[in-house]
Write a structure and sequence with these properties.
Distance between the termini: 36 Å
Helix content: 25-40%
Strand order of the largest sheet: 4-10-9-6-5
Structural class: alpha+beta
Largest sheet: 5 strands, mixed
Number of helices: 13
Number of strands: 19
Length: 494
């Protein structure tokens, strides 16, 4: 997930969109898929080949028919790459059952083929403020593999049973043919749940989501509601607007987290898998965040843990939104842990933010590793060996994912620099109130500041013989450069 979600409205056409197009060229982001990969995608879209035990393949007609499940998707408006669909119900005797269908991209990608090679090259979908650069061709990601409404689709179908308190009690996963009935978006879901007009399968999203959030709190897990930022042009000048996540965003995320945790448990039990892991943040990082909180006026009592504090913040407030942006620094160091034959020790299987073992498995249209996680979980649930092509790919996946994630972070950083420069391009020379959020250990005259208004982060540098920057303190700064696509925002102390 990108650290900062940024979107450009249609009104902000130029020069920002032109600069974004130029940026994609500078970063050598591919505009098109190789012809061989595109041809494979189009052929697979017409006739998917479903992986079966023993290395065989079957057709959609051989799949279990689960099209009677009235599944629905929840995504941002206009989304076409729909990875997940769900159906929620109550169980007789108490508790809940979650049916969660995941797009079965492995039914469209032949191991060792040109499309597979291109996916391993791209690794992830790349997000720019004005468009996406997809992991798979649109014929699949927004077509035959996407869980679009009123279309029969092959899927990896999870069945997760929960007790009345939201605890997972049983897990199974299998291939099936599914059919989504509705494509919903977050605001619409929130509205019908709030006014109590939602039918039970959708209304249960709130009930299950709240129970899972309670369990998350009890584990000491971290859930960051980082607001989206939208760049809007008004009378030739750009402004920055925040869009805070809705409660429905969080409830929907809990279903995905539940599935990722169930996937990790399945693989740990079977002895073969790939986990998403994150070490515990060092004390120094938390101490630095305390300085940031104090400077921003965020009340952080000493007896309150970091995880508990996060849940009290309102992303609609500018200072809280700025602090949430800084909190993402504690998520650095995430990686992937592969095991085959012996499960890793508990300390090495943990994702610190989830406060439990966790795996990426719910976004195979947009992330390479999820295709492999699904196959490992299907094998574990069936009590069979993983496919040879999955086992063969495991050793290289952590490095491939690291390379792809680094590229995605590079894109994100470049986009943030460009958008912030566009936001401030006409304000060079102005003075702003800012917070020093980072200083370079080797050179304390250089660092990073976060403006109070607008919520922009930029580089700051004092004179070489000047005093060091006061970490966590409020200072006045002057904007010295801001040229979209040329120079990122830079400041000097006043």
């Amino acid at each position: 997930m990108p650290r900062r979600h940024m979107h450009v409205t249609d009104a902000a056409e130029a020069p920002l969109r032109a600069a974004l197009r130029e940026l994609r060229g500078q970063l050598e982001i591919p505009e098109h898929f190789p012809l061989t990969a595109q041809a494979e995608a189009e052929s697979a879209a017409r006739a998917p080949r479903i992986p079966a035990p023993g290395g065989n393949v079957v057709t959609e007609h051989s799949l279990e028919d689960a099209t009677d499940l009235p599944l629905f998707t929840i995504d941002p408006p206009g989304s076409l790459d729909l990875d997940q669909a769900m159906f929620l119900s109550r169980r007789r005797g108490g508790g809940f059952r979650v049916h969660y269908a995941i797009a079965d991209i492995a039914s469209f990608v032949t191991p060792g083929g040109a499309l597979d090679a291109e996916a391993h090259h791209r690794v992830t979908t790349l997000y720019f403020p004005d468009e996406r650069v997809p992991l798979h061709p649109h014929a699949l990601s927004e077509g035959a593999a996407s869980l679009l409404p009123d279309q029969d689709r092959p899927a990896v179908l999870w069945e997760l049973d929960l007790d009345a308190h939201g605890a997972l009690t049983a897990t199974s996963v299998r291939r099936a043919l599914v059919r989504s009935r509705a494509r919903l978006h977050y605001a619409g879901v929130q509205h019908v749940i709030d006014d109590r007009t939602a039918e039970e399968p959708l209304a249960l999203l709130r009930d299950i989501g709240l129970l899972r959030e309670e369990r998350e709190t009890a584990r000491g897990a971290i859930s960051l509601n980082v607001p989206e930022q939208e760049i809007v042009e008004h009378d030739g000048r750009y402004t920055l607007e925040y869009r805070a996540p809705l409660p429905a965003d969080g409830w929907n995320a809990q279903i995905s987290l539940l599935t990722g945790m169930a996937a990790a448990d399945l693989m740990l039990t079977s002895g073969t898998g790939i986990l998403r892991t994150l070490p515990t943040a060092p004390d120094g990082s938390v101490a630095r965040l305390r300085l940031t909180a104090r400077a921003l006026g965020v009340d952080w009592p000493h007896h309150t843990s970091y995880a508990a504090l996060i849940r009290t913040l309102d992303p609609r407030r500018a200072t809280h939104a700025a602090f949430l942006q800084e909190c993402t620094t504690l998520l650095r160091g995430a990686g992937y842990t592969v095991f085959d034959g012996t499960a890793p020790a508990a300390a090495h299987a943990l994702h610190a933010a989830v406060a439990a073992p966790y795996a990426h498995t719910t976004a195979p249209l947009r992330r390479l590793v999820d295709r492999y996680t699904s196959e490992l979980c299907l094998a574990a649930s069936a009590g069979t060996d993983p496919p040879d092509w999955v086992r063969a790919a495991l050793p290289a996946l952590p490095q491939e994912m690291q390379t792809g994630t680094h590229r995605a972070n590079q894109v994100e950083r470049a986009c943030v620099d460009l958008v912030e420069a566009a936001l401030l391009r006409d304000r060079v020379g102005e003075i702003f109130e800012a917070l020093v959020v980072e200083i370079q250990e080797q050179n304390p005259t250089q660092g990073t500041v976060h403006l109070y208004e607008p919520a922009v982060i930029g580089h700051i540098e004092t004179t070489p013989d000047g005093p060091g920057l006061p970490l966590g303190h409020r200072i006045r700064v002057r904007l010295t450069t801001a040229e979209p696509g040329r120079e990122p925002v830079r400041f000097t102390p006043v």
